[in-house]
Amino acid sequence: MKLNKQEQAFLNIIDNDPIALSKKLFNSTLWDKQEEIVRSVWENERTAVRSCNSGGKSRVAAEIALLYLLSFRPSRVITTAPTFLQVEEILWKEIASLYRSSAFPIGGQLNRTSLELGTIKNKPWDASGVSTNEVNRFQGFKSAHLLVILDEALGVAPEIWEAMEGLVPHRILVIGNPLDGVGDFYNCFSSPLYNKICISALECIAWQNEHGEIPGLVSQKWVDERAAEWGHGSPLYQSRVLGEFPEEGADTLIARKWVEEARHRELPDDSPEEGPRVVGADVATKSGISETVIGYRYGHTIYSMESWQNIPIDVTADKLQWAYSDHKPHVLFVDGDGVGQGVSDILTRKKLPVSEFHGGYGQQAIDSNKYKNLRSQFYWIMARKFEDGLYSLKHLSDKSYEILKNELCSIKILPHDALGRIRIETKDDMRKRGIKSPDFADCLMMSEFGWYMSKFAQTTGYSYR
Question: Closest Cα to residue 302, out of 343, 274, 265, 330?
């Protein structure tokens, strides 16, 4: 592309300052962390960014792609993400929006996932978005000034990371949500090769409070809602709000990997016709932040989990009656402690064969030589089944799955008691760590009790006390 004198003078003045170029071209207001990311790409060969939700990571990655093309001439940019839909609908939509709104005509030919600026001295000057199944195409990029951007980097396939190294890029930017403490993206943050940046929602909100809101960035309302839903100490809060990789130590009861594998698992020999079918509820009070959760499973396929907040016990009983009518379960169970006892009484008056689960800290386990209490026993059984790949969570809604996963992976194992018995932390223990009541996880644990009783005990009107 041949530039006239005015255009060349304009670019020469601000070539070495990408932030100034951003303001001139896109009239952008970048908050502190976004500016830090831009400067890092110019000053460091490799930059790794772990980000909260809505911290502006896709916007700044799009700006970097265009700023790099204009600052290094000729240059090439290649972007990728776990799926082509993410390539097209996230980063390249941002690139297209910036390209069209630029105060300086960038020129060239913009396509859905590519920008062709021409050649300089017979060397290509362009940008392309490719998906992770296009490894051969990924390997074809060569340039003295090559920028590789891995967006949503946590899910980018290992072969793409390997192919990236073969390109010997001038600059690398990997950016994503820190949802899992394993893999290539996680390893960047312990590598001396990368300049490391963390985007926290709390820092983003503090900046906006001082400088003014930026549309699309995270809000205090969203953070408050996530704190109420997940708890301040939960893995989801750590990753999606604080931008930190979740802690998963030796005392974690259920590994995140096991739950995520269950999400994609189909159990070929599991069917509603074969059963056993279990319907039940973890019942919450009419006031407070805990939720009433009703779940349905057949065998080891967890088919549905729904939650309601602040509903009276008669409404809970009605919902369980409808679920009983729909699914014809072999076991209908209710959390029989507290307000759940009232629900059980209503269902009994309706002549439904309800079983009660009493999971208080002092409730004796069925195997009292091995487990401190009944709750510990069935959480431990459930953990071993997740580890052995026996569950399917494929049918759960996205929202229910995310909440269940967050709660399951938040529960810790306590040291054995004086008799050497297994103990799982109580709800009070979790609250002290800033984690809300694990209502979905408790419902699943109680369903495991229901599954056990359907196999080994008479469940018609059974109450374990």
Answer: 265
Nearest to 218 by CA among 448, 55, 70: 55
The last residue of one of the domains, among 211, 236, 271, is 211
pTM: 0.71
Domain of 47, CATH number, reads 3.40.50.300
Where residue 432 sits, what CATH number does that domain have?
Answer: 3.30.420.240
Both 274 and 177 in one domain: the answer is no
183, 211, 239 - which closes a domain: 211
- Tell whether 295 and 352 lie within a shared domain: yes
The tens-digit pLDDT sequence of the chain (465 residues) is 455 665 565 556 555 789 988 998 899 899 999 999 999 999 999 999 999 999 999 999 999 999 999 999 899 999 999 888 999 999 999 999 999 999 888 889 999 999 999 999 899 999 999 886 667 777 778 899 999 999 999 988 888 898 899 899 999 999 999 987 778 898 899 899 999 999 999 999 999 999 999 999 999 999 998 888 778 877 888 899 999 988 777 688 998 889 999 999 999 888 888 879 999 999 998 887 789 999 999 999 999 999 999 999 999 999 999 999 999 999 999 998 888 899 999 999 999 999 999 887 788 999 999 999 999 999 999 999 999 999 999 999 999 998 999 899 889 999 999 999 999 999 888 887 777 889 999 999 999 999 998 876 544 444 444
As given in the structure block, the two tokens for residue 432 are 């002290």
Q: In terms of domains, do 203 and 324 share one? A: no
| Complete DSSP assignment for 207-242 | HHHHH---TTS--HHHHHHHHHHH-TTSHHHHHHTT
Claim to verify: residue 191 and residue 296 sit in the same structural domain: no
3-state secondary structure of 378: helix
Whole domain around residue 422: which residue ranges? 256-456
